[in-house]
Specification:
Alpha-Beta Plaits, 8 helices, alpha/beta, Rossmann fold, 2 domains, about 250 residues
Length: about 250
């Protein structure tokens, strides 16, 4: 069922004295949809994560670019699972307050992205607490979609950083990345091992933050610095279910 590399990761994580499990959401635990609040969630994977939260010395977190409340709504995540949104800038444990310069940058980038979206049928801008996101998944003309993303990524707005993801260009006015959140969580919880699963370019910061006792899992195709790969969202569900079962046995 598993390659030797995947099985080695499972065995290591199942027997770690303490474990932090962190997972991206879209593209990892759920598929994509034209309606971001109606994505197909892998309930097998979510159930396995919830089972992991019940085990001793095991913490679980969702870490997504979505805002926290939207992430809770679409995922169905429940305490004690930690829910971290906006790439970790906000979570169920608190969030940042933007200063005046950051608020100005956010307003400026909103205007610029909305101007691009208005010129491309199907494009739209999502408003997040610390980010603005140009979405092109609904754009029928793929060349128009590509051009819109390129225009957004070429914007030069003081205090705003632009990055590309799957069918999006995202502008951030905070320095948080998934990597900084994972590092902070590791410092707080001191796990023996950390597992991080993700599928997109924005998840590479998370993989890069992992240490020698940690496991990064890339979902799907594409270049990555993760040490393990799973082919699909369905395989993520199977892997997490196997981990929950094996860790439960190991702790008996």
């Amino acid at each position: 069922m598993w390659t030797s590399n995947q099985q080695k990761a499972l065995d290591h994580l199942a027997t770690a004295p303490s474990l932090l499990v962190v997972s991206d959401f879209d593209g990892t635990l759920a598929g994509f949809s034209h309606d971001a609040m109606q994505v197909p969630v892998n309930h097998v994977a979510m159930a396995a994560l919830q089972q992991l939260t019940s085990l001793p010395r095991t913490r679980v977190a969702l870490l997504s670019g979505r805002d926290v409340q939207g992430l809770i709504q679409v995922s169905g995540a429940a305490a004690p699972m930690i829910v971290a949104g906006s790439h970790g800038a906000e979570s169920t444990e608190g969030g940042l307050v933007l200063n005046e310069a950051q608020q100005t940058a956010l307003s400026t980038v909103t205007t610029a992205l909305e101007k691009i979206a208005a010129s491309v049928p199907g494009a739209f801008v999502e408003l997040k607490p610390y980010h603005r996101v140009l979405h092109v998944i609904r754009v029928a003309d793929k060349q128009q979609a590509r051009t819109a993303l390129d225009r957004a990524l070429a914007l030069e707005i003081p205090g705003a950083k632009l990055a590309e993801g799957k069918w999006i260009a995202e502008a951030s006015v905070v320095d948080f990345t998934k990597g900084t959140w994972i590092t902070s969580a590791q410092e707080q919880y001191r796990p023996s091992a950390t597992l991080f699963l993700g599928d997109d370019t924005t998840d590479e910061n998370g993989f890069a933050a992992l240490g020698s006792q940690d496991v990064g899992i890339k979902v799907g195709a594409g270049d990555t610095c993760a040490t393990v790969r799973l082919e699909s969202i369905d395989r993520v569900g199977q892997f997490l279910s196997s981990l929950a079962a094996a860790r439960s046995v190991a702790q008996q």
